[in-house]
């Protein structure tokens, strides 16, 4: 009788665990139940435009999209969805596999969107290991993925556009660093409606209904190329996209 009483409690705890962990919740197909459409079948790159001349560097390994930052394409090296979208909710899980072959300058981004400076007005750029990628949005910009102290989710093109009002640039800075350590999976939930964007990283809202003035009306979703092999040294440049993606779902609004 005691075992029978414990059984419902175990079921309750399991359910609470699943729905409180976004990476686990994906396995229950709750996105499909909520009207999302999968952008990645876990087998191949159907539905995606592989850059001409890529050489197989965008690939599917063990059920995830893998990129080694060594694309041989001559032009745009990013991976783009075949379909274009207007307003949507996007769920994507990602992780960095490692870093480039040398340290990279990592400036500190302040809540205002400006960089931390020394007493002479120079940007303070301590060297550190870094990998860099992003979710590309309709050709207008990206939601940043990197190893900087500010954390992922930053809106690079908005924050760096000094023609914009200060409050618009500040809203493009993540409210906190919510990244998992390199090697562990992260989840982005991106809500884009008109020129307004919200970014939720690992369940934490890091960008809250920010204005994205340059956002296009429609366009494809992209997975960003970054870095590559240095022509002179033959080594991987710092901040290269040593990255993987999985569980990519979209719901048009």
Automatic annotation (TrEMBL):
Residue ranges occupied by any 3-keto-alpha-glucoside-1,2-lyase/3-keto-2-hydroxy-glucal hydratase domain in the UniProt entry: 35-251
Keywords, comma-separated and alphabetical: Signal
Residues annotated as signal peptide: 1-25
Gene Ontology molecular-function annotations: hydrolase activity
Alphabetized InterPro entries for the sequence: AL/BT2_dom (IPR010496)
Domain of life from the UniProt record: Bacteria
Keyword Transferase: no
Protein name: DUF1080 domain-containing protein
Organism for this UniProt entry: Antarcticibacterium arcticum
């Amino acid at each position: 009788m005691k075992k029978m009483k414990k059984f419902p409690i175990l079921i309750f705890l399991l359910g609470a665990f699943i729905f409180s962990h976004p990476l686990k919740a994906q396995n229950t197909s709750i996105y499909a139940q909520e009207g999302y459409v999968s952008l990645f079948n876990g087998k191949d790159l159907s539905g995606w435009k592989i850059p001409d001349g890529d050489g197989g560097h965008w690939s599917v390994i063990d059920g995830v999209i893998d990129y080694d930052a060594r694309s041989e394409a001559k032009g745009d090296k990013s991976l783009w969805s075949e379909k274009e979208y207007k307003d949507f909710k996007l769920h994507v899980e990602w992780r960095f596999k490692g870093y480039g072959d040398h340290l990279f300058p990592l400036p500190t981004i302040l809540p205002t969107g400006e960089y931390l400076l020394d007493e002479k007005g120079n940007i303070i750029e301590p060297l550190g290991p870094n990998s860099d990628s992003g979710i590309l949005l309709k050709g207008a910009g990206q939601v940043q993925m990197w190893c900087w102290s500010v954390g992922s989710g930053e809106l690079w093109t908005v924050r760096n556009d000094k023609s914009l009002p200060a409050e618009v640039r500040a809203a493009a800075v993540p409210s906190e660093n919510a990244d998992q350590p390199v090697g562990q999976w992260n989840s982005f939930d991106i809500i884009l409606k008109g020129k307004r964007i919200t970014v939720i990283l690992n369940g934490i809202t890091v960008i809250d209904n920010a204005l994205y003035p340059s956002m296009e009306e429609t366009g494809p979703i992209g997975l960003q190329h970054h870095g590559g092999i240095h022509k002179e040294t033959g080594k991987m440049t710092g901040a290269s996209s040593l990255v993987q993606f999985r569980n990519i779902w979209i719901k048009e609004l």
